[in-house]
Specification:
The protein is α/β, with parallel strands linked by helices. The protein is built from ten helices and five strands, in the order ααβαβαβαβααααβα. A five-stranded mixed β-sheet has the order 2-1-3-4-5, sandwiched between helices. The protein starts with 8 loop residues before the first helix and ends with a helix.
């Protein structure tokens, strides 16, 4: 994949290209610079900013997470654009829901072809957060899933679920279990792969967000 400036994304990821920032001594974070582009200003953004803020202070210069927003149809393009402007961003991800997105599968395919990882959830991001409380129930509709999660969240935390809750990640850690969530998400994903045509739009309840979260948390745990 070639960026708008004619540069290969693969060269960035492999560390082959040295841009102006590197020539003047910019230090690439040794544990990675994650660029996460999402299509919401609330739940997903708040979740990943919470994950970022949970990283120990002594690791913050070694593992960087930047969260940006873009329209759903522009997620891949924006991710590539950010990478082309800053070679430190070698780990681009897009994060979005199935919801009512018409080109859901195509966006994921375009991301994979471009070297951008896709953290998708079907039917919605709440199905991933549901796993923190020990289950990923079969729910096909996004609205219903959000309602069911809100009920589960309140039952487990004694607090109302708000999509604009800036402390959502911290509350999931406090009242739920992240390692269990990752295990459940892996199991559900593998079941969906086995029982469907492998099109993400046909796979539910399922999410690949756990791949990103597990990768980041493993890096943190190794050095703690």
């Amino acid at each position: 994949m070639v960026s708008k400036r004619g540069e290969k994304l693969s060269d960035y990821r492999a560390g082959k290209r040295k841009d102006r920032n590197q020539r003047v001594g910019t230090r690439i974070p040794e544990l990675g610079y994650y660029l996460i582009v999402t299509d919401t200003e609330e739940t997903e953004k708040n979740y990943f900013e919470g994950l970022r803020d949970s990283i120990p202070k002594e690791l913050k210069n070694r593992l960087i997470i930047k969260v940006e927003k873009a329209k759903t149809v522009d997620l891949v393009e924006k991710a590539l654009e950010f990478v082309s402007k800053d070679s430190q961003m070698r780990m681009p991800w897009i994060v979005f829901d199935r919801d009512e997105v018409k080109d859901f599968d195509k966006i994921i395919q375009d991301a994979e072809k471009s070297g951008v990882m896709a953290g998708w959830s079907n039917p919605c991001f709440e199905i991933w957060m549901y796993a923190y409380f020990g289950e990923m129930p079969v729910i096909g509709k996004s609205v219903k899933c959000c309602e069911k999660f809100a009920d589960k969240f309140e039952k487990c935390t004694k607090k109302k679920y708000l999509k604009n809750d800036r402390r959502i990640y911290h509350k999931l850690l406090e009242y739920g279990d992240e390692k269990t969530a990752i295990q459940i998400a892996k199991k559900n994903y593998n079941i969906c792969v086995k029982n469907t045509n492998k099109k993400p739009s046909s796979m539910y309840p399922a999410s690949t967000v756990h791949i990103l979260v597990e990768e980041i948390k493993n890096k943190v745990e190794i050095l703690e």
